[in-house]
Amino acid sequence: MKILSVVGARPNFMKIAPIMRALDSYGDRVQQTLVHTGQHFDEKMSDVFFRELELPKPHEHLGVSGGSHAAQTARIMLEFEPVILKHRPDWLVVVGDVNSTVACSLVASKIGVPIAHVEAGLRSRDNTMPEEINRKITDAISDLLLTPSPDGDANLIAEGVSPDRIHCVGNVMIDSLIRALPKIEQSEILTTLGLTAGEFVLATLHRPSNVDDPAMLAELIAALNEVSQTLPIVFPVHPRTRARLETENITVADAINMVDPLGYFDFMSLMKSANVVMTDSGGVQEETTYLGVTCLTVRPNTERPITIDEGTNRLVEPGKDTLLAAWKEVEAHPPARRCPKLWDGKAAERIAKRLLG
Ligand code: UDP
């Protein structure tokens, strides 16, 4: 069987790595092709993850980065069509909700290649998030909808998807995390940054709604500046956010250590030892839930409600006062956690079994 998997942006790498490894264990029965669209392409947003997650070198690189959403999606489609026609896979595997996910799915659906969507069924019910559009379209044209948690199944069923296309397989992000734990333990990032476990905050911000609006970005940084008077903050800055901070000339306190985006082992080591994580990331909500670390998600909604219902995640309406109030609340009452079912390191094995059916 020929299986073609697509990666494009940072959150894809930790999802595809365990799936390719699980498929590899079937030996000659599976021929795998990896396509990198190039959405994220440099050392810090892409190459380091190939090394640390032991992903194979992509067989095809489409070299598409930058541009508006429409331009990027269209260029990925144009570059991907001849590639999929050349390989003619039995399955296209796409993960998550980035532009590469929807662009490659659209191409495959038009030429009749079956699509398996990993992380299907997640919904924020917020169409102002570009990712929500990508999720809904990809799910609508996928043949196999592989969900990380039962809320995904419920969303798809409510949208009229036939239950025989939906399979709850668990969370592949957590597969990568569990496998990497020994390496994460070996990271020396806390020493390098002069931090003490349990006595710092890890912050990440990159959603357009938080960083593209200068007034909102200034408010969120003002809140972080205030938090940093109590606990030092490590802030691995996404390229998009760094660009905004520079053009808007926003003042960041000295106790906030703005570092470049980190490799997976170092980043997860910081997360594991953080007192609190403040973020607007999707994946970070899941990783903190698995690790039992308190997470404040600075967004009005989440497509991952299980991280609140069962995990350590709390939503915070974006703003300075709301973030400071939420921080005080979780400091006083840290959320408890149950680990969601099937977040057990074996999601990729279940996916491979389904694909080989
Ligand atoms: N991550 C990392 N280094 C960083 C920031 C993030 O290794 O400096 C990892 C982490 O595992 C996170 C994943 O990249 O869950 C996805 O990150 P991002 O927040 O960019 O994407 P999202 O999940 O919001 O789509």
Return the string of H and E elements: EHEHEHEHEHEHEHHEHHEHEHEHEHEHH
Strand order of the largest sheet: 3-2-1-4-5-6-7
Low-confidence stretches: none
Q: What is the percent of helical residues?
A: 40-55%
Beta-strand percentage range: 5-15%
Please outline what is shown here.
By secondary structure, the chain is of the alpha/beta class.
Please, could you describe this protein's structure?
- Belongs to the UDP-N-acetylglucosamine 2-epimerase family.
- Its EC number is 5.1.3.23.
- GO terms for molecular function: isomerase activity.
- It comes from Stieleria neptunia.
- InterPro entries: UDP_GlcNAc_Epimerase_2_dom, WecB-like.
- This protein has about 350 residues and is α/β, with parallel strands linked by helices.
- The chain has two domains: about 1-170 and about 345-355, Rossmann fold, CATH 3.40.50.2000; about 180-330, 3-Layer(aba) Sandwich (Rossmann fold).
- Helix content is about 50%, strand content about 15%.
- The protein contains 16 helices and 13 strands.
- The chain has helices spanning about 10-25, 45-50, 70-85, 100-110, 130-140, 150-160, 170-185, 190, 210, 215-225, 240-250, 265-275, 285-290, 305-310, 320-330, 345-355; strands at about 1-5, 30-35, 60, 90-95, 115-120, 145, 165-170, 200-205, 235, 255-260, 275-280, 295, 315.
- The protein has a seven-stranded parallel β-sheet with strand order 3-2-1-4-5-6-7, with helices on both faces. A six-stranded parallel β-sheet has the order 10-9-8-11-12-13, with helices on both faces.
- α1 (about 10-25) crosses α7 (about 170-185), α1 packs across α16 (about 345-355) and α3 (about 70-85) packs across α4 (about 100-110).
- The longest helix is centred in the first third of the chain and has 19 residues, at about 70-85.
- The radius of gyration is 20 Å and the shape is globular.
- The N and C termini lie close together (about 10 Å).
- The mean pLDDT is about 95.
- Bound molecules: uridine-5'-diphosphate.
- Uridine-5'-diphosphate binds near residues 14, 262 and 284.
